[in-house]
Design goal:
Structural class of chain A: alpha/beta
Number of domains of chain B: 1
CATH architecture of chain B: Alpha-Beta Barrel
Largest sheet of chain A: 4 strands, parallel
Radius of gyration of chain A: 22 Å
Helix content of chain B: 40-55%
Shape of chain A: elongated
Strand order of the largest sheet of chain A: 3-2-4-5
Distance between the termini of chain A: 24 Å
Number of strands of chain A: 7
Number of domains of chain A: 2
Radius of gyration of chain B: 18 Å
Shape of chain B: globular
Oligomer: heterodimer
Strand order of the largest sheet of chain B: 1-2-3-4-5-6-7-8
Number of strands of chain B: 8
Strand content of chain B: 5-15%
CATH topology of the largest domain in chain A: Rossmann fold
CATH topology of chain B: TIM Barrel
Strand content of chain A: 5-15%
Number of helices of chain A: 9
Number of helices of chain B: 11
Distance between the termini of chain B: 22 Å
CATH class of the largest domain in chain A: Alpha Beta
CATH architecture of the largest domain in chain A: 3-Layer(aba) Sandwich
Chain lengths: 242, 305
Amino acid sequence: MMGQEKKPIEEVLDSLDGKKKIAVIGCGGCSTVFHTGGIEEVNEMAEILTKQGKKVTPIGLPFAVFACYKPFSSMFVEKFKKDLKECDAVLMMSCGDGLQTIREILDEELGVEKPIYPATNALGVSGGGPAKFIEKCQACGDCVVGKTAGICPLTECPKGLLNGPCGGTRQDGKCEVDPEKDCAWNLIYNRLKNIGELDKINNFVESHDWSKVTRPRVFEREPLDIHKHLGRTKEVIESLGI
Amino acid sequence: MKANSNLKRVLDSGKFAVTAELGPPASTDSKIINKKAKILKGSIDAFNVTDGQTAVVRMASWATCLIAKQQGLEPIVQMTTRDRNRIALQMDILGVAALGIKNILCLTGDHTSFGNHPKAKGVWDVDSIQLIRIVKKMRDENKFASGDEMDVSPSLYIGASANPFAEPFEFRVPRLAKKVAEGADFIQTQCIFNIQKFTEWMKIVCEKGLHTKVKILAGITPIKSIGAAKYMKNKVPGMDVPDSLIDRLESVPKENVSKEGIKIAVETIQKLQQVEGVAGIHLMAIEWEEIVPEIIKSAGLYPRP
């Protein structure tokens, strides 16, 4: 998931200065999990902006409807075409990926070119939950964790070292940069030992291939059969008695 | 090996080597560099210049090396992978070698968050071990990291660091072995205050036969004040300062603390000379370079070969 946090409200209000009619769009994916752009947060933001004298159209996306996936998000956004046409600005409560996907829907599908501002800062690909999340992957395009006990040193180590820990690992095995965090290489060392692969730590790891992060990366894939997949989701939901 | 530095000469002859750190100024003040160089001249075999130590902006290591070199001392350029990618590193390696620098210490570098530009982006395109391999490939194979060939290759004696005190302790010797396997010719260690733990580490180093493949220079830092000792103990990660050392400094009158610190440094050097596999010392008298000649003389390491 994309870890994220809310931008300070002052920064959000500054960006909307002089704009009267605002469409606030959320995200039913990561932004809902991180409480930055779920339906509740979209409604809260609408309330704040209304108190500031603005006319607000809240567009919350239900859970599991990702703003960054056009087939999902466009279904919801399209319904508000009229409000979006009339608004002065869009406030997007998602990561930059969701924001830019919505921007494309507005520009290219709805023909509504509007200023769009972020209410969120994205903090990296982070897994975990329900409460604690740690950034685990930086989508480098050349995964190395097979050599490192399933722990990514490029992401978990602040220096991204590939051949073992720096000289700053603390006596308690914590990182020199943050005494609250475990040294990634201390974790890797212990886990390699536990899974019987400690000999791997002696292998030299070549300089990383960063050419695979040449941005932007563009891919084409066979479109998903949404109906088929949503059918499976429906089965899960029903099995949960919801 | 195509390296012909004075440091290599001393180490190869089996003499106990002495290197010392020369801290670069956070300005263009070349006078202070010359002053420090004059102080160190004659007491050491080569001097190191730190490369943005603690991620604080100071004069570039290579530039400071060249200024101090004019006083007739031999420099060891320190090169961290924090601020330069593999392209910039190789360009600098060509430059320092062409300008007559004969030793290089390959380092990862302190994290940007510790320094005076905490908003800077750390590079770390390669790590210190990958840098060692790059320098060795350039020197011994006349090839860049890319595999492209060069006509005249850098003649550099390759150094690396080692910290016997950081966790996981069991990995600290294998990590040294990795540096040696990739091409380190000499090692300069973290400051040693816990001699027992260092000796334990050296024992494993010798059991693995690494002391025959690489020259190990033991790191020494004379302590100037109780505050400095406590700072290193509590604030500098990877540093092992035993309480007994602080107790000893506290047991002498305040005006004698720095003298006691010098005494401890000299005693440490003498003890380390007895440890199997220790080929020399590296003195890191932080902003206290003027004390180096006294320590070297007291330790019986003067004159230099």
